[in-house]
């Protein structure tokens, strides 16, 4: 049975993920959120560097030439370098970033309206003064009828999930989980969010929360 890949990240991120897979499998893109700028343009000159936990923040910055950046994920780091940033560290996730943090304050966490980890608060508590600026919002979008049919149907559907928020937004818009749905969660937090909302049993979870592992697991499922 040919599997369909269902991607619910914002449009640009979903297309980039699908292109990197190169499997030729049918792909349906149905974002459950849209990234919208808040209009905030922080003055970075007063900070020793920035913290970037998502590449989404970089869409709303004029540039980071010469700015030191601590990043979560290779994709975020690559986007920061493209804007001229000096990437100091690339962490797997927020917890990895905070463990043994090697920067000095003041720092600025550039983030979305919904963020996990309390990065600025925890760094400040550890003696590294860190402020935060919300420069984008994650606006919910209604799930398409096509995506809903795929999730609720019996055909084989591969569904990678990248954040607890997207997992919850998606789960709240479906009536049932079809027998052919195979979910891959990038982290235990994402898996917990999905299972709590849907009543699903244990699902596949990445050992490391990286795009590379998500791609590898997705390709393996598509080829099963």
Oligomer: single chain
- Element string (H = helix, E = strand): EHEEEEHEHEHEHEHEHEH
Largest sheet data: 6 strands, mixed
Q: Spans with pLDDT under 50 lasting ≥5 residues?
A: none
β content, as a range?
25-35%
CATH domain class of the largest domain: Alpha Beta
Summed up, the helix count is 8
Query: Total number of β-strand segments?
Result: 11
**Overall SS class:** alpha/beta
**From the 3D coordinates, which CATH architecture of the largest domain would you assign?**
3-Layer(aba) Sandwich
Specify the helix fraction band. 25-40%
Looking at the structure, what is the overall shape?
elongated
- Rg computed from alpha carbons, rounded to a whole number of angstroms: 18 Å
Strand order within the widest beta sheet = 3-8-7-4-5-6
Give the tally of structural domains: 2
At the fold tier of CATH, the topology name of the largest domain is: Rossmann fold
How far is it from the N-terminal to the C-terminal residue, by CA?
Answer: 9 Å
Can you characterise this structure?
With 224 residues, this protein is of the alpha/beta class. It has 2 domains: 112 residues, Rossmann fold, CATH 3.40.50; 104 residues, Rossmann fold, CATH 3.40.50. Helix content is 32%, strand content 25%. The chain contains 8 helices and 11 strands. The strands form 2 sheets. A 6-stranded mixed β-sheet has the order 3-8-7-4-5-6. Helix 4 links the parallel strand 7 and strand 8. Helix 6 runs parallel beside helix 7. The longest helix has 13 residues. The protein is elongated, with a radius of gyration of 18 Å.
Main traits of this protein?
Rossmann fold; elongated; six-stranded mixed sheet; alpha/beta; 224 residues; 2 domains; 32% helix; five-stranded parallel sheet; 8 helices; 25% strand
């Amino acid at each position: 049975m040919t599997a369909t890949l269902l991607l619910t990240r914002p449009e640009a991120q979903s297309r980039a993920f699908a292109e990197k897979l190169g499997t030729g499998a049918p792909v349906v893109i149905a974002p459950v959120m849209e990234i919208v700028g808040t209009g905030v343009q922080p003055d970075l000159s007063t900070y020793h560097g920035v913290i970037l936990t998502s590449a989404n923040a970089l869409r709303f910055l004029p540039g980071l030439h010469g700015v030191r950046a601590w990043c979560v994920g290779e994709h975020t780091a690559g986007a920061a370098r493209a804007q001229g940033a000096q990437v100091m560290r690339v962490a797997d996730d927020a917890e990895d970033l905070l463990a043994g943090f090697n920067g000095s304050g003041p720092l600025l966490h550039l983030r979305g309206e919904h963020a996990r980890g309390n990065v600025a608060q925890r760094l400040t508590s550890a003696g590294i003064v860190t402020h935060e600026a919300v420069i984008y919002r994650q606006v919910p979008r209604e799930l398409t009828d096509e995506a809903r049919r795929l999730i609720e149907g019996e055909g084989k559907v591969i569904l990678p999930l990248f954040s607890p928020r997207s997992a919850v937004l998606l789960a709240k818009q479906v009536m049932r989980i079809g027998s052919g749905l195979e979910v891959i969660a990038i982290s235990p937090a994402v898996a917990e969010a999905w299972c709590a909302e849907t009543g699903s049993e244990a699902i596949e979870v990445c050992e490391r929360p990286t795009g590379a592992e998500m791609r590898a697991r997705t390709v393996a499922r598509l080829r099963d």
